[in-house]
Amino acid sequence: MNRLRLLVLWLSTGTVSAASAAGFVAIPWFVLMTTGSAANVGVVTAAELVGMLLATALSGPLIDRVGPARTAPLADLAAALCIGAIPLAEATTGLTLWSLMSLAGAFGAFREPGQTARRVAVPELVGNAGVAMERGAGGMDAALRAGHLSGAPLAGGALALFDPPGVLWIATAVMGMSALLVAYAARGVSTSESEGTDTSEGFARRFAAGIGYLRRDRLITWIVVLLLLTNTLDLALTGVLLPTYSARILHDSLALGVLVGALGGAALTGNLLFTWLGARVRRRRMLFTFAFALGPIPPHLAMAAGAGFAVLFCVVVGCGLVAGMINPILAAVSYERIPAELRGRVLSLTTLVAQGGTPLGVLFGGLAVEGLGLRTTLTCTALLYLVALAIPLLGGGWREMNRPRTRSTVEDVVGGSTPHGGQELVDSSSPGCGRQA
């Protein structure tokens, strides 16, 4: 039964991820079809992203206070109501641009806490199921990737068969189904903060407790810094460099779609391989001598050398397989180290910081291509990856990634103790006390 709940959690994660990706496609299409304005599409999409970022920053204390078992299904249900309200309002009272922006922003704001709450529930469900943390983290990331990969194409196909309101109704139903799935999966997970924690603290002090944890745990802090740099470079690659290379060097828009799809599919496959084998490898060696070194850098070098489509496709597939192991390794470390009573706050903060540089990555990627040229920019980004990989040489407790991973250790971590090398973790009751890539 405990393993079934973990499997259902993975299924609900993939389901809500697919519904979110479908909404990210269907809502702009709905706006374009009903208003005919590309500017309105940009404004509504921006409102959804702003809502998502604000919720990422602020939802952590609420998740820790209420508990993932309550937060996740309620967030999914609220997101379903927001997306369903769009076609309902259009069919009844009509929609203004401001109401569209409000509903899109609310949709973005509600769906992110639901995903964070699922991650908060992972360590306890993994401990109850008696499986390795690597498998629990790998399964979550695989479900998330599978949902992202399938949601947008399914929405595109549905838009060819149904009108935009119909697709939004389908997304609403799928989001509602994910709420039911996660409600079942989270049964038995703690519904509130650890016993003995001062739950009367105000929001500001509770938020500060998450930031205080990030300041004290050097390994988690350095992981977030590393992800901030690499995620920024990743978005420059997929958002600017790869499309530009496909247009200027390969002269084929189809090649862009194939390469992006191959990269995502290979990363999902690599993720599944790590879910199967991850408990047998040493994390630090796998992460830095294999996954990071052989994952992101070779595609930049291949394009800088002017590789043709066939060579680049092989490089992208091979590197995607390796890069797919990065997220589960870092997620497993985070799940094991962060105390249960702080998990919602810290995970939401790490997600916010790790993704915070992605808009700058796209912006500076475009400026660099125009100012330095495409191949020079690709060489520079490869060098910047090497600089980022030098971060572990600065210290930061990276050796603690390889701590023993026994069942008793997992149970200790779920219980909120501090087994990793004896480092003391800050308690959320302390006054004045923060990936997926």
TrEMBL record:
Ranges in a coiled coil: none
Main location, first listed in the record: membrane
UniProt-listed InterPro entries: MFS (IPR011701), MFS_dom (IPR020846), MFS_trans_sf (IPR036259)
Membrane association type: Multi-pass membrane protein
Transmembrane segments: 37-59, 71-89, 168-186, 219-242, 254-274, 286-303, 309-334, 346-368, 374-398
Keyword Cell wall biogenesis/degradation on entry: no
Record's keyword terms, sorted: Cell membrane, Membrane, Signal, Transmembrane, Transmembrane helix, Transport
GO cellular component, one term: plasma membrane
Protein localization: Cell inner membrane
Chain segments carrying region Disordered: 406-437
Residues covered by the Major facilitator superfamily (MFS) profile domain: 220-437
GO molecular-function terms, A-Z: transmembrane transporter activity
Extent of the signal sequence: 1-21
SUPFAM superfamilies from the UniProt entry: MFS general substrate transporter
Protein name: Multidrug efflux pump Tap
Organism: Actinopolyspora alba
Organism taxonomic ancestry: Bacteria, Bacillati, Actinomycetota, Actinomycetes, Actinopolysporales
